[in-house]
Write a structure and sequence with these properties.
Blueprint: H1 2-9, H2 47-61, H3 65-78, H4 83-95, H5 99-112, H6 117-129, H7 133-144, H8 152-165, H9 169-182, H10 187-199, H11 203-215, H12 221-234, H13 237-250, H14 255-265
């Protein structure tokens, strides 16, 4: 399935923001399509092309890019109007560091199917990695115009992270706020909202978001240092000491722990 392709084929090509919440960071990673995304089924008569796409996805998952490319090309030889074929090969070309070919096939996929929100989302993340932030944002917004798309939350998360990278915190805040209305426990969005509010000197709001983040059982070096900074401003010495202790115990070798030690020595 194309969802597997995206998980293994696109995530590795768009890791460019802060570290993922599951590691030492608290920020998140722009991704392509969510876990529920499915192949767009080819019309009747194009089953052979569809089969070749599926085989290509399997090879892609195995890291056999040569055979994956063969299968995707074969699929498009059979049916050049297969949007998921163009989408899949675009992801592969991106992985092979052939951006011009990737762009060509992303464009072809959305030209064939103007409602292909998965492709818009992945293409936008690709553009964001290339620092084409305004073009990326237009593609993200295009993905959101499809009322039948099931992954608006992922698009908003990606768009918010891209806006942060672009130095557009107000734009990012809008995306994250809308995301949290429907998914109030998305940790990456909570962390980013805490950071945005801290940077804007809205410290009580920042505390609220970081506390919601911690309530999910999340502790990362980035979030803990942010908690320390927030409580240092607000003057809650007990909370500050708690966050500092957890940071030093759980992530003693992290850059954030080293930064904490430097500030404590001043």
């Amino acid at each position: 399935m194309i969802k597997k392709l995206v998980q293994t084929g696109f995530i590795f090509s768009v890791v460019f923001l802060v570290s993922a919440c599951s590691t030492s960071g608290g920020g998140g990673t722009v991704t392509g399509v969510d876990d529920e995304a499915e192949l767009i089924v080819a019309p009747k008569g194009n089953r052979l092309a569809e089969t070749n796409v599926k085989l290509g996805v399997g090879y892609f998952q195995q890291g056999n890019y040569e055979y994956a490319l063969r299968k995707f090309r074969k699929a498009l030889e059979i049916d050049d109007n297969l949007p998921n074929g163009h989408y899949a090969i675009a992801l592969l070309y991106d992985r092979l560091n052939k951006p011009q070919a990737a762009v060509r096939h992303f464009e072809r996929a959305i030209d064939i199917n103007p409602q292909y929100s998965d492709a818009y989302n992945a293409y936008a993340a690709f553009l964001c990695r290339k620092k084409e932030y305004e073009r990326a944002d237009k593609k993200f917004r295009k993905a959101l115009t499809n009322p039948l798309y099931r992954s608006h939350d992922l698009v908003r998360l990606n768009a918010g992270l891209c806006a942060m990278r672009a130095g557009k915190p107000e734009r990012a805040e809008n995306y994250f706020r809308n995301l949290l209305k429907s998914h109030p426990n998305r940790p990456t969005a909570l962390y980013q909202m805490a950071k945005i509010n801290y940077d804007a000197q809205r410290f009580l709001q920042a505390r609220g978001y970081i506390q919601r983040f911690y309530a999910l059982g999340r502790h990362t070096s980035q979030s803990l240092l942010l908690g320390v900074k927030i409580e240092r401003v607000l003057g809650d010495k007990n909370a500050l000491a708690k966050y500092a202790l957890i940071l030093q115990r759980k992530f003693p070798d992290s850059d954030e722990a080293k930064e904490l030690l430097k500030t404590e020595r001043r």
